[in-house]
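Box 3.1. Reading complex inputs
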Amino acid sequence: MTKLGKQGTAVLRLLVDLLPNVRPGDPRTYISYGKAHALLGFPGTPQDLEYQGLGDVAVFAKDEDLPAITGLVIRQDTLGPGKGYFEVYGKDEMDFTWWENQVALSKRFNWRPYLDAELSAPRATPPANDISQPTRVDTKVSRILRDTQLARLIKEKHNFACQLCGKTILLANGERYAEAHHIQPLGSPHDGPDIEGNIICVCPNHHVELDYFARPLDPDQIRIVAGHELDPRFLDYHNRHHTSLRR
Ligand SMILES: [Zn+2]
């Protein structure tokens, strides 16, 4: 973690948080320099992001042989990544197949071990209270932190077991792993809310199926635990999409 630095870690976490709603090959589901820079609350202009952690993450991912996740940050004019993205990896500037593939690999990759150090710190000392005079940007940043914590809270409530199949993944370090899915997805065009009733704890396979509305969500088949209820409105939303996409 020290290797990545504070800004690099913040950038990586922002990108990992995006992944559930990213569709490889569809840059509209990625993030622009401007938006990433604003969400991170860094000073300067969006172009400065290269030197404010984004470049560090690119080099870090290459050195550690991780998927090239920095391809999620795109220029608003070209809808493509910065030139440096391909350069760092010694790729041609227009190697879009490689780019899409790296995004797909990023989606499937378990980034948690690389963020754990960051995530466990705010759990010990809740961060939101320390912000004495929140600016607009600070508010956005703390919202991202809360998102992460809300998803984590729900996964913990389910002891990291998939609400659809009951399976969990046991990591080499003994921790359990699951993913959180927003049933009515966040962001355009779905604009679902980031609330407990809209978040389901699932295994990676079921997560992909839900992301693509590939399976319906039958309330009777979903495993529940006390203290976490899914809102039927979001289940309906999901099922309507599932049905409309079926041929
Ligand atoms: Zn599952």
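In summary: The chain is about 45% helix and 5% strand.
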